[in-house]
Amino acid sequence: MKKRVSIFFLLSISSHSLFAKDFSLIGDIRERFETLDGMNKKAYGNTALLIGNPNDRLLVSRMQLGFGYQVSSTVKLNVLGYYASVYGWSLRYNDFRKISGYKNYMIDPQEDLDFAKLNIEVQTLFGIHGLSTKIGRQSNRYGDKRILGPGNWGNSYGWLWDLAKVSYKFDDNFIDVFYGQTKDKDKHRLSLFRKHVYAGAGIYSHFKTEANGAIEPFVIYKDGLYTGVGNGQNTEKSYTYGVRAYDTDLFCFNYDLTYAKADGTIKTKDYDAYGYAAKIGYRFKSVAWKPNFVVGQIYASGDDDPNDNIVKTFRTPFGGTDGSLYGRMDIMRWSNLVENVLELHLYPKENMHLKLSYHDFSLSDANDAWTYYKKYNINGNHDDELGQEYDVEFKWKYAKDLEFQAIYAYFDAGAFVTKNVLDNNAQRVFLQVKYTLKN
Hints:
The chain is mainly β. It has one domain (62-344, 356-396, 409-426): Porin (Beta Barrel), CATH 2.40.160.100. 6% of the residues lie in helices and 52% in strands. The relative contact order is 0.12.
């Protein structure tokens, strides 16, 4: 590890002298210490029968290195490789194997060696100002990453695409059209153009409304590629459409609203579900630390009858799922969920952000599952209270290329968890440092 870090910093120092002005070196190193108490990625609880250890102590590392090369005034090549590893994890390689029909693939959330970017951009396409295209490996993220991610907190990213995108920008607005396929995550092999899991297409738009606001209509198509008959087939042909509207400063108020409707088919069933996220806040600009109070509700429909011919459980098409969206415990998804949230944002200094948040989680339908762990009510229970979570997050931008972050999260298990899964609470701690190469 020390050898890799030394090489990375050497490249950082020498990049200006080594490369011409059309060549820019990019990358970062992120080191994070995590503690898990009472849960892990595969199971909730403290019993010996669980997969892995519910009390791991982890060193999570990710190094990214690449470059941007301006081939001409309108053409740019982007390359960014990453190496993600974790030390101290009790979960094994095969714990993240997905089976679909007679095929299998890996979705490893922590360890991977692959490309985050491997694409070419062309500006002023066909001589039209504002029209551009990007083809190749890319993240395809928009807005708050709730509809199209990936989340970036996970070590090996969330969704990464091999994608073709055409974008038209005018003033501060844009309309993007894309088609591509999402890659698997296998630490033993580069994905490149092998083992794609889903195909997807869509339109995502952004139209400025006020100085600090916008409205973003979208429509997304998702197609599961592993369709063989058998256990776990991911056959899906779904459409998710809706709109996001936000403003970061409207007479000291701020809001962020998203509505999404889903239709189509999943396996042999019709798909009919919806979700929304609504947050509104007020910032006291003249008060010390400029407090911003935010209240909100996040909702995703559940299925009142999982045995009928309609899937009513909403799930984000290609959105992020990590803790920045649904609590830092990272045990919830935007699926069969009601989350009532209170947030207090404080800014002790311009380069510091302190966030205190309270989350009240429940199932939107008690007949459906806690989707993160695929747990249902048992023994005739009909509980829907998942529990309450308390988060403290502190971020310090120490310098333009160096950032520190500390997070504490505590989950007080509710009746659904204590009666159907295990009667224990859980907590997590994160301590992170990130160095970004600035060229």
